[in-house]
Each structure stands twice: as C-alpha cells, then as structure tokens.
Prior knowledge:
zinc; eight-stranded parallel sheet; binds adenine; globular; 17 helices; binds zinc ion; TIM Barrel; hydrolase
Amino acid sequence: xxxxxxxxxKVELHLHIEGSLEPELLFKIAERNQIxxxxxxxxxxxxxxxxxDLQSFLDIYYQGAHALHTEQDFYDLTWxxxxxxxxxxxIHTEIFFDPQTHTDRGIAFDTVINGIYNALLxxxxxxGISSNIIACFLRHLSQESAIETLESILKHQDKITGVGLDSxxxxxxxxxxxxxxxxxxxAGLKTVAHAGEEGPAQNIIDAIDMLKVSRVDHGVRCVEDExxxxxxxxxxxxxxxxxxxxxxxxxxxxxxxxxxxxLLRRGVTVTINSDDPAYFGGYMTDNFMAVNQSHKMTKxxxxxxxxxxxxxSFISEELKDKYx
Length: 324
Ligand code: ADE
Ligand code: ZN
C-alpha cells in the first residue's frame, strides 16, 4: 500500500506556508538575517516541538515565522515546500499565509505576497504543480485589523483567491468576523475558515451560515451534532482534515481514535492535508500513511480522498476536468 499511496496524485487544501518552515531552513534564514535562535541546532529545536494544545503550538509557530524578513525568505520557504510536494506527488496546492503575522512587525505585505507568489509561479513551471493562495485573518486580532488587511489583499487580488480564518479558535467565534467576510465575498473572494478544531460544532454551523465558507478547515468536531453531519453530507460541504496535526495538538488521543475514515464512509467530503508539516512531523504522504496504518483503507477509499480534494478545490472547471 505504501507504493500506492506514494504514487497517488494528491491535492492539498490546508497548508500554512509558515508552518512548513523546517528547523534547518529556519536556522539558515535566521543566520542571514542575524537573528538569534535560543537552540543549539535544528535538531534541538525540533525536539522542542511538543505541544499540549493549539495555543502552545501557536506560540512557537509565530516565533518561528518571525525569522522571515525578506522577499527571498518567503520565496525560499515556499520553494522548499514545493520540492516536498513534488516528492509526494502533490499536483495542486492551496496555501494559506498569515499577513498580519508579518505586517504587524513591519514587514510589507508586498514583500510577503511577492516572495510566495513568485515561488509558486516557478513551481508551476518546473514541477507542473498548480496552486492558489488564501490569505488568513488571525482570529485573536480584531475585525478592524482584518478589514485593514483585506484592503492589502484586494490590491493583490490577481494573486489571491480567497480569505481564511485561523489562530486561536477558543473565544474567537466566526461571528466576530462576519462583516470582514461579507466584504471579502462582495469583492469576489472565496471564503474558508478553521472551525471545529478545538472549538464546538456550533462554530462550524456559524462559519457556514455567517461567513458563507466554501469549505471548513478541520471541522472534525462536527460529530457532536448529528444534524450538522447530515447537512454536511447533503450539501457536499468539504472538510480539510489534518490527521497528524490533530494528534500533535491532542484533538484526538491517537490515530486509531481519529474520525476521518468514519466520516469518509458516511459520505462526508473529507480530505487529507498537512496543516503545519514542519511542526507536526509529516507532509501529505506521511498523513495518508498514518491514517491508512490505523484504519486499513481500500485503494478506492484512498482515491476518493483525492477526488474529494479536486472537487472542493478552487481550480477552474477545465483544470478539474484534467485532474479528474
Ligand atoms: N495556524 C496555523 N496552524 C493552525 C491550526 N492548526 N489551527 C489554527 N490556526 C493555525
Ligand atoms: Zn490550519
């Protein structure tokens, strides 16, 4: 089955580019930007990646992202991720970035988006990997800050397909960003949101009803509301599930407890994604392998995960036809 999973074409819909910053590249970038890292080696830093919950991860993740300063840094980060995509037979990826993590410390929005976008263009040329960019609002910040960020996003709408919502879910429900999402929608952007990762099923309902999302990031706590699961099935609402992330952040105790295969067998449009692979110990193939090891899936079920991701992606109908 390993050969089958490796060769299976994959589509990634939930990847934070800042979360793909491997310790080795972090050290290299920090050195050229003359930033001190309080660890002796990349390996020592990797050893420190032990998390109790989402917040304990986010604290370390934002620290790591602060090493990124120049357009070249964002290019190198994105390029390294694309090289991993090539190894994993990822044919299309929709990547998140967190503009406020950078603009709030004085890095220009243009620096960030240009570095990421140019690497993605080169990834398409060199590897044939198609891509879209989704800019996420940090939900621990205010709606005013999100709207200010939206103004920058709209200046780069030729490069950005949609907006998302990430960071600390507890205490920051979808409702807080209703107006910002309404403005984004009116401007023609797609919308997605993290919901039902650590927060309750109600956040999934509110992301769908109030933020008009096209898909839900994580969404695994939908099982706490049977009517919601039925609605997800009937409306073919996709969940971008991140199995290794969920184990690392203790959303589930271990992979055998994870509900992704149950949801797939019930007809929910679930997909497999890597979230923050540099922090959670695995890219796309690793996530597929880990789920299959605990749940013994058929080839047809594994293929369905890719079909689900193609259907839930923001690629054009023509390109979907090519990938189907
Ligand atoms: N930002 C990066 N990874 C995240 C996750 N898994 N949940 C919420 N915000 C994030
Ligand atoms: Zn995420």
